[in-house]
Amino acid sequence: MKDIEIRELFRNREEYAGKEIVVRGWVRGNRASNQFGFISLNDGTFFTPLQVVYEASKIDNYEEISKVHLAAGVMVKGVLELTPGAQQPFELKATEVTVEADSLSDYPLQKKRHTMEYLREIAHLRPRSNTFSAVFRVRSIVAYAIHKFFQERDYVYVHAPIITGSDAEGAGEMFRVTTLDLSNPPTNEDGSIDYSQDFFGKETNLTVSGQLEGEAMALAFRNIYTFGPTFRAENSNTARHASEFWMIEPEIAFADLADDMDVAEDMVKYIISYTLEHAPEEMEFFNKFVDKGLLDRLHHIVNSDFERVTYTEAVEILKKADKDFQFPVEWGIDLQTEHERYLTEEVFKKPIFVIDYPKEIKAFYMRLNDDGKTVAACDLLVPGVGEIIGGSQREERLDILEARMDEIGMNRELYDWYVDLRRYGGVKHAGYGLGFERMIMYLTGMSNIRDVVPFPRTPKNAEF
Amino acid sequence: MKDIEIRELFRNREEYAGKEIVVRGWVRGNRASNQFGFISLNDGTFFTPLQVVYEASKIDNYEEISKVHLAAGVMVKGVLELTPGAQQPFELKATEVTVEADSLSDYPLQKKRHTMEYLREIAHLRPRSNTFSAVFRVRSIVAYAIHKFFQERDYVYVHAPIITGSDAEGAGEMFRVTTLDLSNPPTNEDGSIDYSQDFFGKETNLTVSGQLEGEAMALAFRNIYTFGPTFRAENSNTARHASEFWMIEPEIAFADLADDMDVAEDMVKYIISYTLEHAPEEMEFFNKFVDKGLLDRLHHIVNSDFERVTYTEAVEILKKADKDFQFPVEWGIDLQTEHERYLTEEVFKKPIFVIDYPKEIKAFYMRLNDDGKTVAACDLLVPGVGEIIGGSQREERLDILEARMDEIGMNRELYDWYVDLRRYGGVKHAGYGLGFERMIMYLTGMSNIRDVVPFPRTPKNAEF
């Protein structure tokens, strides 16, 4: 008899009511008296466990089952009985229970509250807890929502390279990728390392962004997006930084900054709506146990028109604010999280795009505005978190781009292919980057990035 | 006036017939007489270009447009006229043509046949050619088909870690990831490198497979899949090996090898059907210009029941074969491509799973069969390519797994978390790996892996 997934029982209960079925799953709870017992059974396909009732008079291994350990894998045959009015909508009256894989009694995930720190140490088992089961299912659903959003709009999904020979000007510290023997690396005559003998014949690193390659693809396909891992070798031990994280980077051609923000706004709303619809049990759980205002906040965002305000206006608002900021505000500074949250939470009370930042604090590829001192950049700030998206219109004018690269001393030769894109039909284009983990934190209310990645990588930590 | 994507024109032509519209795109071809000219316009959203007709009597910059370079980005306003019976189904009669971004005359992608080798050198421009436009759109569609297949079946998408501290027993050579100064690395007293000072406090590498982490997730969620980049630091300069490639690794719990093969077979058929349906123009192109039997072969696969044959039977067949193999066949050898192709192409004439391989030639985690000498592994062989999927039921028995790890001298401490999965509810489970690029090669008929990756990484090559 083929087993039925517990998700299917919850979604189509009427179909199985009164019928004999087989389920398989893991024991999340087990308590028994002399005559009957209850197993809380979870097979991983659904957030809520199935209640199994077994009776001494009905199964011949009652003694064994009443002592079965947490986490054991069992098969249960029985009849599904609807229980209207009870806490759970139905229960399975067992006629047969078989242990398929027992569990040792020292199971590290006993039924009690554990600290998040402890759970990180058992990252291979924590997805079996309520919180992490909910987090990682939502992570999966959000990833799919992102693909669905772009594919339905005929964007081409691009795998940007992970190993790169470029030095990613300004985007952050990089990890080196090498096959050289560190104890005895080949050297040049001047004593420097001879990277021509390395695997790729030159210095290579892990990518910090797929944007530049994305631009090449957008100037062929018009609309593209990347979705892949990116890396930062920064020694930041904060709740919001990981050394390895996933990014989504759409790039659109024949488009300016306003078009770019339209796509970003639509995407954020789409992701939220899709997740609320496809993970209702998990989102309810987060709202109840992780972040009490979560659902209200998300619904509010879906129903808001995102505001657009220039950096210069934002600085004026902050300077006039009756608020003691830790970092003083002056035109030209990089906005800090305290400023961003004040703007989005207290002033506008909804998501805002801040646009047209001073060119000095933004990347070389952002398009210079007519004022000569700001660039067509946009950061999306949302209540409760701050920045989740950073984007820009790209500098498509060959002479201005080259001048800017020289100004900050970039190696033009290394980027000649990128400059080529401006030589041959380099129409206006724009794009943005969304940090996937930031989005998951935002959607779940989880406050530490280590708790939204299955096996997180942070300074001094690459376990599992 | 908002521009309309060329894909939309081709898909819903009736809606636009006789209407004035605006399109934007790049010039793929331009020829003009004294009185009228034709631009072949491609905006990247559709394989087939739009034919634009412009006349000296209708636009005031006829002279300029007639000389516009290949690859220039232009805006065209005009009326769409259906042309039944003509080569193209419609054309756009221009009333206005504006150059939005010109192109230099030395455009490296002139309208002529280029060698694949040359095109690899201009990987930033080659997606603008017919072949690579088709390849990379199909790549995107296949990626989505894979997500859709698993998500519709409620599999949880898992991002396995890219940077790993494990040594991936047996799966191949790895790239080191480090932030140590190679010119002057810290050393221990005995002169060896002191990796405790490296970024993660120990030696780390790029992953060769997400399977072990996938197993942890499957034993929480029942059904999961990974889809991410994996790496091999092997100095293989073949048409089928890349240093960086993407893999899909589903893992299913409460499942054995037969279940595993069922999923693999369904997935392969789903991917093919989805691609044929969603990229008909591209698939037609491949069938015509890249691989003449392609469509027949793919349709045949969708309609076949995949055969299942044991390794032992396969060896018997090969030994009896009236065929001169380069590598002689004996029970215990690893099957070579020549053997695999003979079996799938000449004997069975359809896809076959070869199962139950000698344990010595397979990985430590594969489940030992009752005969004590083979393991529950499966390789899927397909006509025209050979192996595209490798999978197995995993060894879920604690004692047998530990004995096997000791037998081949593995570091048990490093894998203690993996062994834990057998201590706490380690039910039977199985999984497989699909090389994404191999699948794309199979679907497009492209014969070199460098030509199905946007920016390929191979020994001595990490350009762009």
TrEMBL record, chains A, B:
Residues 136-454 form the Aminoacyl-transfer RNA synthetases class-II family profile domain. CDD domains: AsxRS_core, EcAsnRS_like_N. It is an enzyme of class 6 (ligase). Pfam families: tRNA-synt_2 (PF00152), tRNA_anti-codon (PF01336). SUPFAM superfamilies: Class II aaRS and biotin synthetases, Nucleic acid-binding proteins. Keywords: Aminoacyl-tRNA synthetase, ATP-binding, Cytoplasm, Ligase, Nucleotide-binding, Protein biosynthesis. Its EC number is 6.1.1.22. It is found in: Cytoplasm. GO terms for biological process: asparaginyl-tRNA aminoacylation. It catalyses: tRNA(Asn) + L-asparagine + ATP = L-asparaginyl-tRNA(Asn) + AMP + diphosphate + H(+). GO terms for molecular function: asparagine-tRNA ligase activity; ATP binding; catalytic activity, acting on a protein; nucleic acid binding; transferase activity. GO terms for cellular component: cytoplasm. It comes from the Bacteria. Homodimer. Belongs to the class-II aminoacyl-tRNA synthetase family. This is Asparagine--tRNA ligase. The gene is asnS.
